[in-house]
Structures are given as structure tokens and as C-alpha cells.
Design goal:
The protein is mainly α. It folds into 2 domains: 158 residues, Up-down Bundle (Ferritin); 30 residues. Helices cover 84% and strands 0% of the residues. Helix 1 packs parallel to helix 3, helix 1 packs antiparallel against helix 4 and helix 3 runs antiparallel to helix 4. Bound molecules: fe (ii) ion. The site of fe (ii) ion has 6 residues, from helix 1 and helix 2.
Length: 197
């Protein structure tokens, strides 16, 4: 498989990821309680629509179609965001959960753009690298804005009273069980590392 094929796969993944976000961002904007955060999500939705268009230009430039690969990673990250939206938390604490979820989506995309820009540059495709860099810059700036809005929100959240322990939902119980499995599966490797050190 040539580097160009790897790049095309990577770009199709990003195209699917951006499309999934076009669908998910309105839910974050609707769910956010803090007006500034709401506005940031709404603004990033508009930016994301532009990013989809930019990726279409990239594919036109490559003479390839943009579809062909579903981004499972973004589906998982968005699914975690849905969990944050379902949380029964107070205002700022609820928003703090949304910030964590939104930053995960941004950084997932940042990784994809950084990798594909390196590939396009290596392949001598400056026009494509430039288009991708415009998307990357927007993701970096969105993540920065969300992080700075988070400072005041998290300060407020830290003043909110702790919730009494509520009975776990079926989904939460499943997640807790899986996390124990993750720990158990890592144990042999972790023990090995410790004996080396
Ligand atoms: Fe994006």
C-alpha cells in the first residue's frame, strides 16, 4: 500500500468524522448551560460545515471520492459525549463534562489532520497540505477557546455541592464491569514492566 493510499484512507476517516460532528455539535450546543459554551459549540458547528467543504476540495484535487470509510473512533468519542449529555449534574458540573467530551473530539481530529498534513507534505502535495492546515488551525483554535471558557465554568463547578450516590443505570454498570476487565487484562503486562524496572 503506497503512502498516497494511506493518506486517502486517513482523509476519508476525517471526512466521516467531520460529518458525524455536524450531527453531534447541535446537541452539545443545545445541551450546554453556559451561554459562552453554547455559543462556542454553535460557532464550531458552522466552522465544521466549512471543514467538510474543504475536505471535498481536497478529494476533488486528488480525483477521489470522499466517502468509503466510516470513522469508528469518532463514533466512540461522540458516544462518550452522549453519556456526558445524559448526566444528571448541576449546571457548571454538567458543562464541565461536556467540555471534556468536546475536547476529546477536537484532539482526535487534530491527530488526524497532523498525520495527514505530514503525509501530504511528504508526497509533495502542498495544495492539499494547505487546505488541511486550514482545518487544523480551526480545530486548534476551537480547543483553545473551549479550554479557556472552561476555566470559569470549572471554578463554578467546584463550588457546586457533591451529588449523593445514586443507583447506577444498566449502562453505567456495564461500563464499570468493562473497566475492571481493562484493568485485569493490563495486569500481566504491568507486572512484567515492574519486574524489569
Ligand atoms: Fe472539525
Amino acid at each position: 500500500m503506497a503512502l498516497k493510499d494511506v493518506l486517502i484512507d486517513e482523509l476519508r476517516d476525517l471526512y466521516s468524522a467531520e460529518n458525524q460532528l455536524v450531527k453531534a455539535l447541535p446537541k452539545l450546543a443545545k445541551g450546554a448551560k453556559n451561554p459562552k459554551l453554547k455559543q462556542l459549540f454553535a460557532a464550531h458547528l458552522e466552522e465544521t460545515k466549512g471543514q467538510v467543504e474543504r475536505l471535498k476540495k481536497v478529494f476533488l484535487e486528488l480525483g477521489e471520492k470522499p466517502t468509503g470509510q466510516h470513522c469508528n473512533g469518532m463514533e466512540g468519542v461522540i458516544e462518550e459525549g452522549k453519556e456526558a449529555l445524559e448526566k444528571d449534574e448541576q449546571g457548571a458540573s454538567f458543562d464541565s463534562g461536556l467540555i471534556g467530551a468536546a475536547l476529546r473530539t477536537e484532539h482526535y481530529e487534530i491527530a488526524g489532520y497532523e498525520a495527514s498534513i505530514s503525509m501530504a507534505t511528504t508526497l509533495g502535495l502542498p495544495k492539499i497540505a494547505k487546505l488541511l492546515n486550514s482545518n487544523l488551525k480551526e480545530e486548534l483554535s476551537a480547543a483553545k477557546k473551549i479550554t479557556s471558557a472552561g476555566v470559569a465554568i470549572m471554578k463554578q463547578s467546584s463550588l457546586e455541592p457533591e451529588e449523593p450516590n445514586k443507583p447506577k443505570t444498566g449502562k453505567e454498570k456495564y461500563s464499570a464491569r468493562k473497566s475492571k476487565e481493562d484493568e485485569a487484562k493490563a495486569a500481566p503486562e504491568l507486572n512484567k514492566a515492574r519486574s524489569v524496572a
